[in-house]
Structures are given as C-alpha cells and as structure tokens.
# Entry
Amino acid sequence: MFAIHYYENRVYVFNHASNIVPSAQENVRIKGRNAKVLHVDQIGDQKYAVTVEFEKIVEKRSTDPRDYKKKKR
# Structure
C-alpha cells in the first residue's frame, strides 16, 4: 500500500492509500472532479506527492424565459 498525497498549486487537496500510483499525464477523479496528473514525486519508501490540475468548472446559465418575466403578486 502506498500513501498518495494530492496537491494543486502547492495546496493540499487529498490523501489516499492505494496499491496503484498514478503516472504523469493520467486522468484521475478526486472528490467528484476530474483532474490531470502533472507530475509524481516519491517522498519516502511508500509516500508519493502527486501534483494535479483540476478541470475548470463551467457554470450553466438558466435560459428559461419564465425567469425574466415580472412575478405576479
């Protein structure tokens, strides 16, 4: 088992105990968000620091015409 610590822009995100160490340029899913592994550093015998970059979240705008009408009292 390896202890894998995930970081984004030097900010600690998540740690995970796993038998598989992710490789560079691999897509992973952390906390329900897609991320891409930038690089992997081995800290100790069984510790790894993985730097990731999350995909940008695109906000969906409501285009419902009922939202733009005046509300009745």
